[in-house]
Amino acid sequence: MASFKIVIVCLALLVAVASARRRDMMSDDELDYHYSKRGIPCACDSDGPDIRSASLSGIVWMGSCPSGWKKCKSYYSIVADCCNQ
Question: Which residue numbers fall in the propeptide?
């Protein structure tokens, strides 16, 4: 009887996994919009030395900059980079 229950549970899981819908892929424009809204603004080297009057044109990315973005801060950090497009 216990093996019958195990078979039923396994079949139910198989049906649930097989019928799961895949999420639609985002277009490049949607990805750019979401990338630009992600993260914390940071000051690039081109924004000037004064952080209070800087326009904060960069965005902090954990790890490294994604494709299409470039590192805009001169110092090196293992944890995060200040990137802009």
Answer: 21-36
